[in-house]
Write a structure and sequence with these properties.
The protein is α/β, with parallel strands linked by helices. The protein has 13 helices and 9 strands. The protein binds nicotinamide-adenine-dinucleotide. Nicotinamide-adenine-dinucleotide binds next to helix 4, helix 6 and helix 11.
């Protein structure tokens, strides 16, 4: 299926470079953001900025939203989807709660528009380099329709199942990540006090049963993995505030379906405390400092 102009709502840290990559791929992109600076930056990258979302409704055959939270997505889709031609593909790539994602799909279905929840992993660097991973929920047909667009903004594209399963996979993965990072940090904090060098612990655990991504790709102490944010004073990377957002989404989802996730709950509480101490803009692996400090109290 061919795609004409693409509408893009939400041109911030992620949406801006994603829209720019669609322009680079040859699409006409019509964009809107409530923030003037985001619109200006996107215009510089070749996005045609419109003065209201309604203005782009008649002229696009696909729409992408990249917004802060579920309430923004549902509000934008509620206002805009009724104005789109039936058959227009709608993709939301924000990280939002599963219930809002399913509510957005329902709005699209009411107006005969195929839709995808397609949250991403890879951060602003991946958005710029078009190496994002898209984690997608929606019908197989909508997925195949959206794949050519997503492939211009990302490298790995996974279809996880029906509506909402993209968001479900994203928050389940990030709950594993939050928990495993705290586990790795605790092990380093304990090892240090037991007279074990960080490198020795790394060398053993990296090839033993403690091996995990938080250790071998994102080690929270400087040295063993030169590319990890610990080597750059915990400049993100993946900011604590965003990890906390995802852990809260996982907790909300767990409550909704009455699933017990005690480790996820504790990880969420620890990141909330760390965030409240003013560390929201630091990489999430900096929580090792917080754990060491608690030991010293
Ligand atoms: P951002 O705050 O930089 O961008 C969001 C943009 O949406 C802003 O420019 C804002 O002005 C705009 N906006 C808000 N309400 C709007 C509305 N009603 N109409 C039009 N525009 C509106 O955030 P971001 O970092 O680009 O993140 C966007 C989404 O991607 C979030 O859901 C976030 O959790 C997710 N995400 C971010 C990262 C990351 O590393 N930044 C990584 C993965 C996923």
């Amino acid at each position: 299926m061919t795609v004409g102009a693409i509408g893009f709502i939400g041109l911030g840290n992620m949406g801006g470079p994603m829209a720019a990559n669609l322009v680079r791929a040859g699409y006409k992109v019509m964009g809107f953001d409530v923030a003037a600076d985001a619109s200006l930056a996107a215009a510089g990258a070749g996005v045609t900025i419109v003065s209201s979302p309604e203005e782009l409704a008649g002229g696009v055959s696909a729409l992408v939203t990249m917004l802060p939270s579920g309430k923004h997505v549902v509000s934008v889709w509620s206002a805009l989807v009724p104005l789109l031609s039936p058959g227009t593909l709608i993709i939301d790539s924000s990280t939002i709660d599963v219930d809002s994602a399913r509510a957005a799909h329902a709005i699209a279905a009411t107006h005969s528009c195929p839709s995808l929840d397609a949250p991403v992993s890879g951060g602003a660097g991946g958005a710029k380099a078009s190496t994002l991973t898209f984690i997608v929920g929606g019908s197989r047909e909508a997925f195949e329709h959206g794949r050519p667009i997503l492939s211009r903004m990302g490298k790995n594209i996974f279809h996880c199942g029906d509506a909402g399963t993209g968001q479900a996979a994203k928050i389940c993965n990030n709950m594993i990540l939050g928990i495993s990072m705290i586990g790795v940090c605790e092990a380093f904090a304990l090892g240090e006090k037991l007279g074990l060098s960080q490198q020795a612990l790394y060398d053993v655990a990296a090839v033993s049963s403690g091996q995990c991504w938080s250790l071998t790709s994102y080690c929270p102490v400087p040295g063993p993995v030169p590319t990890s944010p610990a080597n750059a004073d915990y400049k993100p990377g993946f900011a604590t505030a965003l990890m906390l957002k995802d852990l809260k989404l996982a907790q909300k989802a767990a409550e909704t379906v009455s699933v017990s996730t005690p480790m996820g709950a504790l990880a969420s509480q620890l990141y909330a405390l760390f965030d409240r101490q003013g560390h929201g803009n630091e990489d999430f692996s900096a929580i090792i400092r917080f754990l060491r400090q608690r030991g010293a109290e």
